[in-house]
Specification:
Layout lengths: L7 E6 L3 H10 L1 H8 L3 E11 L7 E10 L6
Parallel strand pairs: 1-2
Antiparallel strand pairs: 2-3
């Protein structure tokens, strides 16, 4: 997250990661947030198997950070 000051805005979801991503990218408020030297992050959680064919599961994050360039 660089060395600039600011607040980190985090949105967390359990499913529909792409829909949340699209909504953020279409939001003028998200761009304004970033222009004020803040950070924006989307974290989607899903269960993945520890081993192929196994039963044990672990929650794993999918993380996307946004920058002003994502909105142009």
């Amino acid at each position: 997250m660089g060395d600039k000051p600011g607040t980190i805005g985090i949105q967390s979801c359990g499913s529909a990661f792409l829909e949340h991503d699209k909504k953020i990218l279409e939001s003028p408020m998200a761009l304004k947030w970033l222009e004020k030297n803040n950070y924006l992050m989307l974290i989607g959680w899903r269960k993945v198997k520890l081993k192929r064919g196994g039963k044990a599961m672990r929650w794993s994050p999918r993380i996307k950070t946004y920058q002003i360039e994502n909105f142009k």
